[in-house]
Each structure stands twice: as C-alpha cells, then as structure tokens.
Amino acid sequence: MADISTKPYIIRAIYEWCSDSGLTPYLAVAVDSQTRVPMEFVKDGEIVLNLSLSATNNLTMGNDAIQFSARFSGASRELYVPVKAVIGIFSRENGQGMFFPKEPEGVKEIVGVVADVDAQQKPASKVEDKLPQKPVVKKSHLKLIK
C-alpha cells in the first residue's frame, strides 16, 4: 500500500489553528509549472498568499491541491496550488506554523514564467548540482507593520 502524505493534513490543521486563534494564515508557495498564481507577484520563484476568510473566496483545501479565488490589485483571480508546491503555512502575526522542504519537480527548474518551463529544461546533472544538500529554511520576507 502506498504511503499517504501527512502534508495536506498538517496544512489544514495549521490553517484551522490560525483561524480558531484569530490569526491570519499565510501560505508560502514555490511556484512550479502546475501552480496557477498571479506571476507578477512571484519573487525568486516563490509567493506568499493570505488564506484568511476575508481574503479568499471558495477556499478548497484538498489532499492534492489548494484552490480559491482572491483579489489582486482589485481584480479577482482563480488560484491553484498543488500541495507539493507548498513550502510553509504560518501565522502572519507571530510567524508560528510549519515549513516544508521544497520538493523538486523532476529535472525542471522553477522559472518565472509558467509557459517557458519546458523550454528551460537542463540536463539532470546540472539541476542536481543546484539542489541544496540540506533543506534550507528561509525566514519570511514579510514585515509586521503596526
């Protein structure tokens, strides 16, 4: 029997904890070829999304993907985030949550434009050289403004 990943369950649990505690759940995502997010807000191949009830509409957190619509610069957008692309879920207010190691997407590199992923393939040896030996936990680039 195949192992079932605990990652989607942990994501939902931290989301529930944030919501129950009156905190704002944020989702950190490593953008890959299957991720559908506003590319103009992606920085260094990553994006951080606000998952609060007031920021999302029709939020669905499944075992394979997280889907919802949200407003960016006043325009409603449909977002699709595969669970494998999630690198963290945490509270905006105190930073508590859970971070996961990035899951490589085969030999494809994460690029800024989704349509160019297939054109940007590199030989496996070059990609393996770029992968970190140990998982690197990045600190959030968000600043708390009061």
TrEMBL record:
Region Disordered, residue ranges: 124-146
Protein origin, superkingdom: Bacteria
Biased composition (Basic residues): 136-146
Entry's transmembrane regions: none
Protein name as catalogued: Stringent starvation protein B
Gene Ontology cellular component terms for the protein in this record: cytosol; ribosome
InterPro entries assigned to the protein according to its UniProt record, in alphabetical order: SspB, SspB-like_sf
Pfam family, one: SspB
SUPFAM superfamilies cross-referenced by the UniProt entry: SspB-like
GO biological process, one term: positive regulation of protein catabolic process
